[in-house]
Amino acid sequence: MCHQCQRNDRGRIVACQSCKRKRYCIPCLRNYYPGIAEESIAKKCPFCCNICNCTACLRMDTKLEMLLPHLKGINDEQIAEKLIEAKILGMEFEEVKPQSTNFLPYERLYCDTCKTPIFDLHRSCSSCSFDICLACCLEIRNGKLQACQEDVSWNYTNRGLEYAHGEEGEIVEMTDYNLNSKDRMKVPSMLKAMEAGSITCSCGAGDLELKRILPHDCVSDLVKKVEEAAEASKLLDSPETDGAMPLF
What start-end ranges are recorded for coiled-coil regions in this protein (predicted)? Predict the structure, then answer.
C-alpha cells in the first residue's frame, strides 16, 4: 500500500530500501515529489528523509519515534525524582503521590533559578512560594548549580495582571513571601541538599516539597501510549502485512 495515498490500486510502487517499510506509488511520486528520481526514492524514501508531505506526516501522527526519546527522557527524570522522594519520606516508590500545586489557570510556572517553564513535577517551598525545576534539583545535589552563582536582588513593582496586558493596573502588595521588602525578589543561591536528597529552601522555612501540575503518572502513561502507537505503526507498515490490518 502506498504510504502517501494509503491505496493499493494505483499500479506500480517504489519500495524504500532504507527503512524497508514505506512504499510510494508512481502517481503520488509524480504529483508530490516530481523533482526526485525513482532511484533516489528507492534508496531513501521521503519519509526517511523527513520530507514526506502526506496528511499523516504533516499532522505528526507518524513522528512518534522522534517524539518517544524526549518523552522517555522526561519520564526518566521524573522517576528519578520520585525515587528520591520515596527515600526522603521512607516509603515505597508506588506510594509517592505528589500533591497538586496551587496556581491560577492563566498562570505560567517558572523555575526561580534557571527561569525555565515548569509543566509538571517540581519542588516548591510552602512558605515563600519558591519553585525549582527537576534539572536544578539535580544540579544542587551534585553541588553544581549552574543557573545562579551569587545572590542578585533588584527592585520590582508588581502592578497586577491588568498591567501585563496593557492596562493601567495598580501596585499589588506582594504578600506571598515571608521576607522583607528588599529581599522579596532575591534569587537564592544558598539552597542546600541533604544526604537523603531533600533540598532546604534558602528562606529557612524548611525543605522544598515535590509538587505536580499534571495528573498522577501522566507522563508515564503518555510514554506507554506512544510506545503502543509506534509499535502499531510499525506493524501496519511492515512488509509482511503490506499495509493490511494485523489479525490478533
Answer: none
CB of 199 closer than 8 Å to CB of 207: yes
Grouping H, G, I as helix, E, B as strand and the rest as coil, residue 41 is: helix
Say how far apart CA 215 and CA 217 lie, in whole Å.
Answer: 6
Q: What percent of the chain has pLDDT over 70?
A: 76
Between CA 171 and CA 212, with CA 108 as vertex, the angle to 5 degrees is 125
Characterize the bridge pairing of strands 99-100 and 209-212. parallel
Alpha-carbon gap, residue 211 to 127, rounded angstroms: 14
Q: How big, in percent rounded to 5, are the helix, strand and coil portions of the chain?
A: 35, 10, 55
Using a 10 angstrom Cβ sphere, with 0-12 exposed, 13-18 middle and 19 or more buried, the burial of residue 186 is middle
98 grid coordinates: 505528589
Q: Which residue has the cell 494485523?
A: 246
Crossing angle (nearest 10°) for helices 64-89 and 134-141: 50
Q: Is 110 helix (H, G, I), strand (E, B) or coil?
A: strand
* Distance from the Cα of residue 210 to its chain's centroid: 18
Rounded to two decimals, the pTM is 0.57
Report CA torsion sign: 37, 39, 45, 49: negative
Spatial neighbors of 38 by CB under 8 A, at least 6 apart, are 14, 26, 29
Average pLDDT, the chain: 80
